[in-house]
Specification:
This protein is of the alpha+beta class and about 425 residues long. About 35% of the residues lie in helices and about 25% in strands. It has a domain of about 260 residues: Phosphatase 2c, domain 1, CATH 3.60.40.10. The strands form 4 sheets. Strands 1-2-12-11-8-9 form a 6-stranded antiparallel β-sheet. Strands 3, 4, 5, 6, 7 and 10 form a 6-stranded antiparallel β-sheet that branches. Strands 13-20-15-18 form a 4-stranded antiparallel β-sheet.
Length: about 425
Amino acid sequence: MTSDTQAKDKIHFWAATDVGKKRDHNEDNFLVDKNMNLFVVADGMGGHAAGEVASGIAVKSMRDIVSQNKDLIEAYEEGSAMATRKDVANLLEHAVHKACEEIYSIGIREPEKRGMGTTLSALLIINKDGFLAHVGDSRIYLQRGNRVIQLSEDHSLINELIKRGKLTAATAEDSPYKNAVTRAVGVYESVEVDTMDFDVLPGDQFLLATDGLTGYLKDNEIPGIMKLDQNIKELPAKFIDLANDRGGKDNITCIIVRMVDHDGKAAELNKEIDRRIEVIKRMPIFKYLTYNELIQVMNITKVLSVESSQNIVTEGDTGDALYIVLEGAVRVHKGAVDLVTLPAGAHFGEMALIDTSPRSASVTALSAGKLMMITREDFFHIIKAEPRMANKLLWSFLQELSTRLRTTNQELSEDRREALEDLTEELFDID
């Protein structure tokens, strides 16, 4: 079964599902809603065809709930202050929760379906923004240029064991727990939902797939299949053939979504995004983050254009943002006394992310340029939403503070030594 259309000629997509070579019925379901640019894959589980019921309810519920709140989508699309990124992400999370409640309630009413559930991975695209909601071990990949990023995280026992160092990716292939999921929609009355928002660029491609495909697929194989010059209608069949050729032990479903690059700017935009990510990555507090996590940090940055001699930070003011010099240079000074010049790639004000102390110096642009800014509010939002990332960021902060403390102690020791030498010279009249 296949589905195809193109939305306002900006988004092309094609989807397909296959029963595979070992199963006698298909418990996967998918949704392609061309009016809302909503894409969903779901992999059901449970006996007596209950998995098919669960995955069907999940995709229908997602479409119904999002459609019922189309006014929010339209407000966001029009740039209204009444609809934020968080509001859209919350809508997708709410839709998953409603699906979970409905599937669970059916399982309670119909004993033969009790315990049924489904994975669910949803992608919603509004203008230049993408939104993800995810539960289970189906996946959403982003291909940007030749780089492939798994946007979703597997909620599986295998992944938990790998994260805890109990297994490696290589040994996981032979694990008896390979198909055990740690989260599913509908098995219990509620479920924790991962959500994420991110920028979408012309030329970006997305692959949404159930584990009937991803269990056989290596990330580095995706760019060789999902080439921009390939007819998108041929791509799902290629992925399905790959999975079946390698065993086809499960149902196979995938959706390809392609952002059309009408103006030929994809390469230029990708280069700019990579430049910003590289600048962020060089900062000590972000050094432990994965590429996926760096994208999330980049998504909360605001780019500010500054003119020569423009004041950016004033000594004594309460700060609430970290700044990164993207283009140009700035001077850090106390009054008319210059302390240091910061070139492109440097940063200042990071302590404002964790406290409200007054700024210790002023910062002024030496030339026209661009800065990236991260506010304390957005930084705290990431910490609350991403506990694993929060651990890395807070550990990096502790290391940075420890380094500064050692440096300060060393400087104080040198000052004390110099003061003692001066006092000795004075007391004993040493020339």
